[in-house]
Prior knowledge:
alpha/beta; Cytidine Deaminase, domain 2; globular
Amino acid sequence: MVRLTNSKGHPTVKGLAPVIDRSQDIPFMREAMALAEQGAALGEVPVGAVLVLDGQVIGRGFNRPITSHDPSAHAEMVAIREAAAAAQNYRLPGSTLYVTLEPCSMCAGLLVHSRIQRVVFGATEPKSGVVVSRGNFFEQDFLNHRVLVEGGVLGEECSAMLSAFFKARRATS
């Protein structure tokens, strides 16, 4: 698991560590994995995301850049756009995003701007993940919001899904 404090050991949200219910992390990550499989069936890289507020799913998404002809249509973007439209508010405080792959810089920026409280990811992304793999984006002092981070939730399963997808893609090309 990834730490919930900054590099100095301080809680990352307004000086107080929030009470976090982790009992639903695995079921919500499994739902994100099912969405990732839907994307894979369409030829998209299998990444899925579920946005949750007060135990209820408020947004769902899977990667759609290829099918939607939109380079910003990452799973996180799709789920957050859906939730913001339903809430009629671009800010989604108190929510948790479950995503099968560590967020990239674009998606990490969106998490800050939408005021998401917590991100829980499965597999790390050594090439472009900015939450832990390529730096600690959410600890930057220029940000006006901090996102709590937990990584590795069903990480081996999420990683295996990605590996199987790319292995199959290489076999057919």
